[in-house]
Amino acid sequence: MSAVALPLTGRCHCGATSYEVSQPPVVTYACHCRNCQRISGSAFALSVIVREESLVITGPVKGTNWVAESGNRRWGDFCGECGARIAHGTEPSIGMLVVRAGTLDDPSWFQPTAHIWTSEAQPWFMFADDEVTFAGQPQDTAPLIERFARFGLFPQ
Ligand SMILES: [Zn+2]
Ligand SMILES: [Zn+2]
Questions:
Q1: Do residues 154 and 28 make contact, with C-beta atoms less than 8 angstroms apart?
Q2: Distance from the CA of 68 to the center of ligand 2, in angstroms?
Q3: What is the DSSP pairing of strand 27-31 with strand 115-116?
Q4: Using CA atoms, how far apart are residues 45 and 100, in angstroms rounded to an integer?
Q5: Which residues surround ligand 1, an ion (CB under 5 A)?
Q6: What is the DSSP string of the chain?
Q7: Model confidence over 7-64: pLDDT tens digits?
Q8: Looking at the CA of 100, which ligand is closest?
Q9: CA distance 137 to 87
């Protein structure tokens, strides 16, 4: 796999809201929690964790917030025109934001380092033996960050 070009760019479904990520993402994962199922309308969400200062969103963004099953307070930004989720974060900030791989202009590089919240996964979804899985929220993300770096997608 060759290096992915920065900035990463993406947009909502209607195109009114777009974004750029100026620095390499920190880690990726697939989240199977019920919140992600509801937000995406799908079986799971593909999350790209980026540094807060590296993300710039342009467009008619609106916000929402909720308490995650992990107990963390979360907020989300979505396109005010079409409602597509663009990013979400934690309150208070941990310096990281989540963008959804499906909104990237080029999602082809995306590969999850882990599947999380498998306890809430759709029963038909089969996890491969070599995939890293967590029943809930991973307590220590350092091994996942290292695994993502070993993919070699964003050479430093
Ligand atoms: Zn839109
Ligand atoms: Zn989730």
A1: no
A2: 8
A3: parallel
A4: 7
A5: 12, 14, 16-17, 79, 81-82
A6: -PPPPSSEEEE-SSSS-EEEE-S--SEEEEE--HHHHHHHTSS-EEEEEEEGGGEEEES-EEEEEEE-TTS-EEEEEEETTT--EEEEEEES--SEEEEEGGGBS--TT---S-EE-GGGS-TTPPPPTTS-B-SS--S--HHHHHHHHHTTSS--
A7: 999 999 999 999 999 999 999 999 999 989 999 999 999 999 999 999 999 999 999 9
A8: 2
A9: 19
Output the CA 15–ligand 1 centroid distance in Å.
Answer: 5
Written as six digits, the tokens of 117 are 């919240």
pTM metric for this prediction: 0.92
Phi, psi of 118 (to 5 degrees): -65, -20
Domains of the chain: 8-148 (3.90.1590.10)
